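re the bet — no i am not wrong, look at it urself. input seq straight from the record:
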Amino acid sequence: MFLKMINAVIRRRLEAWLYPYPEVGEDGDMTFSVAVRELGFTDRDLDALKDMLQVRFYCDFIAETLLRRNVGHFMAHVAEQKWYELDVRLAAHQHYGVGIDQGRIFFIFHVSRLAEIANEEIHEVLKCQSQNKSWN
């Protein structure tokens, strides 16, 4: 089941629904969801999906893959939020939360994870540029 889900996440352009950015005092947690059917599962698979996603490794791996595949969409969602920088500094992402309701899988994460991913991507771009300069 895990491999089937990862395959769907990687091969398909899934529509991750983002929910409104939290207001001050809500700790900077963000929520997104994907439809169970878009992943190639049916309602009969829900119990097995719930069991699998209770294992932290599976939940974190799937949510992280979804987040990275849609990172531009997520960053655009928080770019103009006035609490983003404060939320990033006040807490740090540890693990993804998960729930299944009404045919959707909901993932919850701390917005600081977006800052970490953005910093990783900037570092990679700068590293590639500096390598190209040294080879020229």
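see?? The helical segments are 2-11, 46-53, 56-69, 71-78, 84-90, 112-135. told u. also The longest helix spans residues 112-135. so pay up
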